[in-house]
Amino acid sequence: MTTIVRGQANTLVVNFYQYPGGPAQDVNGLQITITEVADSTVVLGPTSTGILHPGSGVYTYAWSPSAAIDLGDYLVSWAASGAAASEIVTVVEPAASSGVGPCETWPVQWLCDLPTGSAAVTGVALQFASQVLWSLSGQQFGLCTTTLRPCRRECQGMLWPPGSTVWPNVWPGQTYPMPIWWQGQWLNLGCASCTTECSCSVVEEFVLEAPVYDIIEIKIDGVVLDPSAYRVDNSRFVVRTDGGSWPLCNDLSKNDTEIGTWAVTARYGVPVPDTAAPAVGELACEFVKAILGGDCSLPQPVQSLSRQGVDITFLDPNEAFGQGRTGLRLSDLFISTFNPGGLRGRSRAYDVDGPTGRRRTS
Question: Does residue 170 form part of some domain?
Fold first, then answer.
């Protein structure tokens, strides 16, 4: 059974043959339909848009189920003229990044004909190529999805300081909301509402613990908030734009589907450059050949060969791999372009005093 990660790009694959166990055969008018098994709801299709044909009898479709889709089993149906196929796939939550590989399979442009039944069809070679190029390019590309349980933003600290002379009628230690005199009227200032140096109005915002690429969804009391109700500034400040307020409390003892909770599902990282696709395809093709026992262009542990008066010297694989190269033209060009210094990982900065949310890891 195939596992599909919610909120990420996943490749669905189908193979057609002239007869069971026979040679591969192309089909006409192929369409894909995806239906939820639990209630028979059609979540995709039928459609032919997006179906790719990487090899004889082999067809693929990149499915990116939204973060709002239900977890569970889905029926993937392929229908063509005189041919059909189906499988059950399971949609699961994205796992927390372990830091030992990319969170997603990189985009690919295949530069070879995929043999029938090859390991690349099952995604093994593609995942291997993504892992290698991610590592050799300095571990700097790829988007990861995570769900955060934010904490409210404090404006001055949680408590009034003892002996405060700002509000003489307020007991020391009293918590928010607090009164503020603003433009001729009294307002209650909540912990998630602050004025800033560049804004003359109260800003409803909260701060993410680290910069994000984009926000997939925000849930409050288990209900997904319309994306038009907020925006993201500086990749960290999530500002309410619909006149509403962010919750003051987040009950972390409950799941984010329950009343009294809120959660933010976001992607962080740097998108994989479009120019990576040919490099991934070149390297993945060689892994296919190596796995199937064919001739491949990856450096072999042979230094020289003399045959019929012809001497051939090969690339030293130890030297190539030691310099962070693969021995393949497009792959090495991608690596040298984006990681000329041969860095092992991207630089990171940590703000130990900055805002911290909470993310579920298991």
Answer: no
Do 286 and 347 share a domain, yes or no? Answer: yes
Q: Is residue 290 part of a domain?
A: yes
Cβ atoms within 10 Å of 175's Cβ, excluding its own: 10
Section 91-108 average pLDDT: 70
- Residue 4 in contact with residue 123, Cβ under 8 Å? no
Q: What is the DSSP letter of 175?
A: B
Could you give the 3-state DSSP secondary structure of residue 117? coil
The yes-or-no verdict on residue 63 having pLDDT over 80 is yes
Give the predicted TM-score (pTM) of the model. 0.56
Count: domains in the chain: 3
Same domain flag for 323 and 293: yes
Residues 6+ apart with CB under 8 A from 101: 131, 134, 135
Q: What is the pLDDT of residues 269-289, one digit of tens each?
A: 889 998 899 999 888 888 887
CA dist 42 and 45 (Å) reads 7
Residue 54 and residue 114 in contact, taking contact as beta carbons nearer than 8 Å:
yes
How far, in Å, CA of 224 to CA of 70, rounded? 13
Cβ 320 vs Cβ 314: under 8 Å? no
Say yes or no: 1 and 89 in one domain: yes
Region class of 21: left (phi > 0), else alpha (psi between -120 and 50), else beta: left
In this predicted structure, what is the pLDDT of residue 255?
A: 84
Is the domain of 253 the same as that of 309?
Answer: no
Query: 22: domain range?
Result: 1-93
Task: Say if 173 falls within a structural domain.
Answer: no
In a shared domain, residues 223 and 212:
yes
The model's pLDDT over 147-169, given as tens digits with 9 standing for 90+, comes to 888 866 554 444 444 444 444 44
Helix (H) or strand (E) holding 55: strand 51-55
